[in-house]
Amino acid sequence: MNKKSVRNVEVAGKRVFVRVDFNVPMENGAITDDTRIRETLPTIKYLIENGAKVILASHMGRPKGQVVEELRLTKAGERLSELLGKPVAKADEAIGEAVKAQVADLKEGEVLLLENVRFYEGEEKNDPELAKAFAELADLFVNDAFGAAHRAHASTEGIAHFLPAVSGLLMEKELDVLGKALLNPERPFTAIVGGSKVKDKIDVINKMIEIADNVIIGGGLSYTFFKAQGYEIGKSLCDNSKLDLALEFINKAKEQGKQFLLPVDIVVTDDFSADANTRIVDVDGIPADWEGIDIGPKTRELYADVIKNSKLVVWNGPMGVFEIEPFSHGTLAVAQACAETEGYTVIGGGDSAAAAEKFHLADKMNHISTGGGASLEFMEGKALPGVVALNDK
Ligand SMILES: Nc1ncnc2c1ncn2[C@@H]1O[C@H](COP(=O)(O)OP(=O)(O)OP(=O)(O)O)[C@@H](O)[C@H]1O
Ligand SMILES: O=C(O)[C@H](O)COP(=O)(O)O
Hints:
The chain is of the alpha/beta class and 393 residues long. It has 15 helices and 17 strands.
């Protein structure tokens, strides 16, 4: 990576503003997956051990510039304190006199967590005044929030214009792994793209046709490709505005000599619920009033074979509605094949990461990104503003 890392600068005795992504899933006030907090421990511990005064900042949810009680970072602070085995002070705001006083009291090796930065209107607007107010709290900015690196916000991008700005260890790891995988891929390289909407995945499918050897398509976005080829898709998801583009992708893959794999059979249902009737049909057999919900057994076998014969697999988006057990078999089969392949496996965050966790296969993958949208934009080849703003080496 051509950006400076926290390891390249002096941190002892310095006040360090560390942007993390503690936007963790919560249910009834409790954290249901603390992966993003655990993944920042190397950076936080490094700073503690090297005598920095650590000021942590994060967003949580989308409060749109208002204080939303359920989106306070209190629980995240408590969890971090448990994981670190030391107290983590918590501020009730992210800027202002009270916060300044708390920062002034910080001793070397101590940690203070600021309140949700999205409680301020200026955060998402990347307001320079807010960025300056964050910067005034510190001597150094460390960005470890890979999950929010695709956002040009005051605490991810703006602040980097007012302080020396370097990457944290998680940010560095994410960029190294994803960068190496995509810039110099081991081949055969298979990209798996699933999920619900074609429009969210256009750029990634396009890019993957260019750089991968095999592109595997699954999930709700498959049906736009089927309809484009003239098949009946019943009540399945479809983006009618993308039919031409779907055909273009199929042709582009053909022209470039790439394998573009679409499901050959699918699980259809007459209702979107666990006890609905289901059937397995070939792609040309979807009943007009039924809905495609998962890939079928022939497809599972075909996809697993391709995955197991790959040296690199990059997976983004589930193969079906994996949250409902009868429709989870396709996603499970792909997760199992990723777990079993000798190739290097990268999961691009979001729902595929949640699926790997759900199937207890997460520890069998080589890299699970902490970024959903961020990893997608990185794979599309887009520059991430939170990274661009950091100091060059
Ligand atoms: N055939 C289908 N019909 C309807 N929904 C589907 C189908 N296949 C998958 N889904 C749904 O798609 C959702 C995931 O789509 P999305 O495009 O958000 O994936 P993702 O990119 O992995 O997630 P994220 O955006 O969080 O990174 C899941 O909730 C899943 O239930
Ligand atoms: O969960 C994420 O993908 C990141 O925390 C970014 O959140 P956002 O999509 O609300 O900006």
